[in-house]
Amino acid sequence: MEKNRRRKSKARSPKSWHSVIVVIVLKAPHEIEIMREANLHLYEILNLLEAAALPGTSTAELDRIAEDEINKRGLKSPFLGYANPPYPAVLCTSINEVVVHGIPSKSVKLKDGDIIGIDFGVIHRGYVGDSARTVCVGNVAAEFRQLVDVARESLERGIQACVVGGRVRDIGKAIEEYVTPFGYSMVRDFVGYGIGTRMHEEPQVPNYYSRDATVRLKAGLVIAIEPMVNMGTHEVRTLSDGWTAITADHKRSAHFEHSVAITDHGPVVLSRP
């Protein structure tokens, strides 16, 4: 989840890279282990949500499942009540042309052929886990399955660039270079970020190449990488609810996210076994 340019949404929009003091908090091994625990809870709950994402299921029902699991496991939600206006759910459910921050609703039910981005976070022992995946609902057309596959693989390319001594911009470069040959575009209004005791820490992590993203990758840095891949234009607009971001051309979008720890032995994806 990130903040948008008006600081109303969960997803984070890029700020100017100039005249900004960036304070980066590196994590000790015991902190990374707690974040690993948080993210494994998250992984298990996302599996339940993916299994429940069937034709006829409302997005409010998915949110209820997520909230029940949070309560059952003694976790907290970093999404519920976040920002201004306060986000009203523990889950973001973004269907088809919705890029991010779709608000769950009883009146919105999944249909055969939809794709839905499920973005979810938890707080465990004071540390945040954050992850997202796009799920195909029922019989999805090949062109939309390809979009989902490309977005998923683009995240893997970004993770591979998470090596000590590299720069943040290497991550976005790897993602964008994989995506663009398919004729897709990278959303630029929202970026990834550092994560720890707060959902949004420094540095910002663009999911596209930005020459100015020069922060060095160091052992102990934990970041959330979340490419958002559009079939058409990269441009998005936010609806009147102050949260729901959709593609400007109403073409579909896919979104994947992992929380990743950078170590001397390579990247460790915290949000999967």
Structure characterization notes:
With 273 residues, the protein is an alpha+beta fold. It has a single domain, classed as Creatinase/methionine aminopeptidase superfamily (Creatine Amidinohydrolase), CATH 3.90.230. The chain contains four helices and 14 strands. The strands form four sheets. Strands 7-6-8-13-14 form a five-stranded antiparallel sheet. Strands 1-3-4 form a three-stranded antiparallel sheet. β10 (236-238) and β11 (245-247) form a beta hairpin. α1 (29-52) runs antiparallel to α2 and α3 runs antiparallel to α4. The longest helix is centred in the first third of the chain and has 24 residues, at 29-52. The model is unreliable at 3-9 (pLDDT under 50).
The helix/strand class is: alpha+beta
Instruction: Provide the number of structural domains.
Output: 1
Q: Number of DSSP strands?
A: 14
Uncertain spans, ≥5 residues at pLDDT below 50? Answer: 3-9
The name of the CATH architecture is Alpha-Beta Complex
Q: Strand count, sense and closure of the main sheet?
A: 5 strands, antiparallel
Task: Report the CATH superfamily.
Answer: Creatinase/methionine aminopeptidase superfamily
Question: SSE order, as H and E?
Answer: HHEEEEHHEEEEEEEEEE
Strand order, sheet with most strands: 7-6-8-13-14
Q: First CA to last CA: what distance?
A: 21 Å
